[in-house]
Amino acid sequence: MTRLKLLIKEVLSTPHKKESIDCCNFKKRNNKTTTLNENIDKRIVMTENMQYHVQNQLPLTETNITYGSKGYIDLWSEARYLYVRNTIDVNKIDEKILTETNLGEYGIFEGEKVPLDLPISENEEIDTTLDVIDDESSSHKEKTNAMRYIIELAYEASGIFPKTLKQALDILGYDVSLNEHKFHIYIRDPKSKEIKKLD
After folding, report:
1. Bigger pLDDT: 84 or 157?
2. Rounded to two decimals, what is the model's pTM?
3. Is residue 149 within 8 Å of residue 138, measured between CB atoms?
4. Measuring CA to CA, which residue among 125, 124, 126, 143 is closest to residue 134?
5. pLDDT at 19 > cutoff 70
6. I need a labelling partner for 111 at 20 to 30 A (CA). Which of 15, 19, 136, 158 fits?
7. Contact 49, 24 (CB under 8 A)
8. What is residue 187's predicted lDDT score, i.e. its pLDDT?
9. Could you give the CA distance from residue 104 to residue 87 in angstroms, rounded to a whole number?
10. Which residues, including other chains, have CB under 8 Å from residue 159's CB and lie 6 or more apart?
11. What residues contact 150, with CB distance under 8 A and at least 6 apart?
């Protein structure tokens, strides 16, 4: 017991360091970056993606990870884990996503594992394939394979072999001129905790 008393006495008698109470050096929680909480032990285990954001002080919303990929979802999952434990500080937008959504979590919808609170394009395959065709850095072979892929999708859907890319897109119901994008999102109902699909 005397050792505890000595420790308490030592802590109480030690003056505060000036820099720890200097309001000008205090990092606000609404900064524009993702940072490691300075009061936390520096030996925190993080993935490379999270380390990249912390070391470069980048917001999570400015990630270079492909939107919707497993890595993207895992980044938000890890960020939530670290944020809830007060290990990282994030900007207001990231904080809102971490506290008000389930981004980074999965749920089961009609027997299938689905990412929550992640808007998903219903034409994602076509969008990605058209990006390859439009990208000037894509090789001729990549563009040809992309066009073949869309034509094969149209053939599988209708049994009619389209002669042009536009005809294939028409068969698939994809209107390029309208730049029409249909999205759906899976959410967890706050009351029932059931997973629902919103179009």
Report:
1. 84
2. 0.58
3. no
4. 143
5. no
6. 158
7. no
8. 86
9. 17
10. none
11. 126, 129, 130, 165, 168, 169, 172
pLDDT of residue 15: 62
Identify the CA nearest to 83 among candidates 124, 75, 184, 149.
Answer: 75
Domains in the chain: boundaries: 25-104, 123-171
Q: In angstroms, what CA-CA distances link 24 with 28, 35, 151, 171, 199?
A: 10, 18, 62, 62, 47
The token pair at 100 is: 């008000």
- Upper half-sphere CA count for residue 17 (Cβ side, 13 Å): 3
Gap between the Cα atoms of 133 and 128, Å rounded = 9
CA atoms lying within 13 Å on the CB side of residue 28: 7
Bridge partner list, 112: 109
E strand spans, the chain: 35-36, 88-89, 106-109, 112-115, 120-121, 183-188, 195-198
Residue type present at position 40: I
